[in-house]
Structure formats: C-alpha cells, structure tokens
Design goal:
Blueprint (H helix, E strand, L loop, with lengths): L9 E7 L2 H12 L4 E7 L2 H10 L4 E5 L4 H5 L6 E5 L5 H9 L2 E5 L5 H12 L4 E2 L1 H11 L5 H4 L7 H11 L4 H8 L3 H15 L4 H10 L6
Parallel strand pairs: 1-2, 1-3, 3-4, 4-5, 5-6
Helix pairs in contact: 4-6, 8-10, 8-11, 9-10, 10-11
Length: about 220
Amino acid sequence: MSKRRGGSAIRIAVAATSAVRRAGLESIVRSQPELQLTGSFGAVPILTSFARSTEVDVIVIDADTIRDLLLEPRFDAAIVLLTEVSDARSISRLLRSGVCAILSRESRLDDVLSGIYAAYDGMVLLSIPAAESLAAVFGDRPLDLDAESSDEITSRETEVLRMLAEGLVNKDIAMRLGISEHTVKFHISSILDKLGASTRTEAVTVGIRLGLIPI
C-alpha cells in the first residue's frame, strides 16, 4: 500500500456495477477535502487496468459478488469492499487477497470513511456480520493463552498515550505519526478501554501509575 505523502490528498478509485451506487461512492469521496477521486468504474477488470497505470492509495468496491475480485491479481492499493458476503471462508479469502476493510453495502457515510482511513493506514476493519462470522469459526477454541495479553497496551498505543501526556491533540498526533486522525481516534478509544479510563486525563494518570509514561 502507498505510504502517506506528506499531507497530500489520499487518492481514491471507486467501482460499482450500479450507476446509482457508484455515484454514492463518488459523493462520499468528494465530501472530504483530504480525499481525491482519481477514477470511477463500472467493473473491477476495468478498474484493475486503470490501477496498473495510475497511482492509487485506496480502492473502494461495491460488489454483490466477490468472484471477480478474487480472480483479479492483487492490487498495490488498499481495498475497501462493500458487500453482503459474510461467510467465514469468503472473508478469509478476501483478507488474504489484500482486502483491508469489509463493510455492509448499506454502510453509513461515516463507516465508509472509517474504512477508507483504516485501510490507508494499514489497519483491518470488518463489519459486525463479517467479524462475527470469523469469530464463530474460532469460538470453540480455548482462549486462555491470549487472556493475559489481550488487554496489553501496544507499542503504538504507548506512543499515542505519551503524546496525550504532552497535551497534543488528535491532529498533531496524526501528523507526528504519519497516520489519519480517524486512526488516532481508534488508538485512543482502545487505550481508554484497556486502561479502564473514561477521559484522556484519566488515561494519562493511569499510564503514569503503570509506568507507561516516564516522569
């Protein structure tokens, strides 16, 4: 996936067989000043040809079938897929093929934007049905080995926590780390949850007590 380009717009290409749904995706991209629509297509094969000759950061595809997507060679860009396909086998194949975000075709504007920013920043975002489908496959496996580590603060979250202690706002943290503000929000939400804190100030206080923030 392309690296963040020093504040330049994130280049987006969209594809949907339905002209109405394609127009909806175009509207979502155009609603954000930091997103740039580089192409809009009615079929994945045409999009593939375009992506081979044009630099694209994120590809958003609305599809009622994933057959064409799985048959296509892997894209260099991150992929956000809007689909109703939610069986575990298909979700697994899509993730292995390079899809970063799998959302419902009826997702709200904010959800689609979250998928775009998450995919661009190298994160994976799944709709509840897709996540539940994968969870069901492993639901009968013992989780004892992971129980102690599941709530540990990651190194990136520690970085964010220390920046919160410096008094940096989301925009400043995003610029320093080279990620989107949406991703910063994800990290902060995870930090609050793991530390059992309800505010940033409380999270910083707990972080100092736990030795996560040097004083």
